[in-house]
Write a structure and sequence with these properties.
Low-confidence stretches: 1-27, 29-38, 51-56, 364-386
Oligomer: single chain
Mean pLDDT: 81
Number of strands: 2
Strand content: under 5%
Shape: globular
Radius of gyration: 34 Å
Distance between the termini: 64 Å
Number of helices: 29
Length: about 500
Amino acid sequence: VRFNWNRRCHGAAVNTPYRPGFRVADMDWERGFSSESAMIGEKEMEEFRSEKSVTVGKSPEEIEKLVVDESLSEVERTCLLISTGQDVQRVCVISHIPDLFRSDFTACHSQVLPKLECLLRSASAEVHVAASEAFATVIQKQLVEEYVFSSSLLPTVLTFIHDKDSTIASAWQETLVISLPYLSKDVIRKEVLCLVVTKGLLSQSVSSKKTSCKIVGRVSTKFEPFWVKRELLPLATTLCQDIDQDVRACMCCELYPLAEALGKDLASSLILPEVLELANDEECVVRTVAVETLAEVVPLLTHPEDLVPLLQKLYMEALQREDSFLPVMSKLLGKLCYLLKDVMSDEEKLWFLTCYQKMCLLSSQKGRCASAGGSGLRALSTLSLGPPHEAKMESECRRMCAYNFPAMLLFIGQEAFDEQLSTSFASLASDCDPLVRKTVASCFHEVVKLLDKSCLKVSSHYQNLLKDNSSEVLIGLIDHLPQVVEAFANASSDTKVPAMPCSEL
């Protein structure tokens, strides 16, 4: 209880000035709170004593409702709480239904499921989410046979994917998508495919159309190419052209399994044009997913060389846009160059190498960076492509270049390192952003492995990184320190060059 001492008390206790070292025990309690001076009289004290304490928590009646007979079996307790319990109890027991299927399948199937189906007709969204997650666990862990799931659990899933509550519908739609790989072709044809078209209609919600996209991708690998082309491809094409960017991006994610199902010939003629169109989408999120999909479908193309000029165009446009799409292109450059190196001409290889070199030097702030551990100030070569507010994006682009360095070294070969990549590696290893240097440190063991006997050419950069004042950089080095030191030792013994002094380590 907080008292207003200035109002409640008077006399010496109230008027006593503050003195350093003054303690409560030093107060003259007899004089300050005598019966004559205290304003809290007997009547007020009686009122204070008679005040009822505030009850916190559940009432006895509420607690009684939560009590369950301990003699009941797990199945009986689950049935009781599903029927008469509160939502918090129902969510708890529903989440343990997979365990019941594992321990007592017959009782769970015959007693618990009917109770749960009745409950779900009027249950809250929280209960539906718990039930959908439990059903997904049952099929993922294959706790029941496929025919049991199809006959007993799948009808419930299909019933509530149309619920008016978006939370409930989304939860059951996700469960349906998860269950598709475990269902037979016949069940998919009879129960699911009609939903693909229904959920993909223009009038449907974004969530429903995204579910349709995921179903197309999941079921495509189960059927023959001619059937996929006839039944699924038209819908996929429509969804790729949807007015909502999230739907277009979601369908683009499913184009790779669709390409796999169609095979090389059909993938090149039917899927590649869709991916390239999405790679030129006006929305960055769609372009990002499209380029990632493009990198996946390259091995499925019959004429990958046709892709090279299209990629050149995409990279030139990415450098011009200067948006968040640029780091994505930077991240995929190494993979794309490696996959296409056998079909590139020397001129095309040089073009992509030059593009990589420029990305390594991207920076929106010119200046000098304090060196780590005593090598003074180091200048950072820059190529400014945008205003200062884009510094973070361009730094991420350089980090992706560091991530891709081993792939680019594979692309041009170790014999061209001195002439083509040594400057870029030096720039990345001395970058002013510690995350870039950390990425270089983390892949240094791969670089020395690819350089083989020539790895001593980068030993000075390794020494500088060992002196770095960023703990993140040092952690990246320590993880693979033995491999790097062994590579340097082997190279120095073969070339009769003195190894790195131990004092540097």
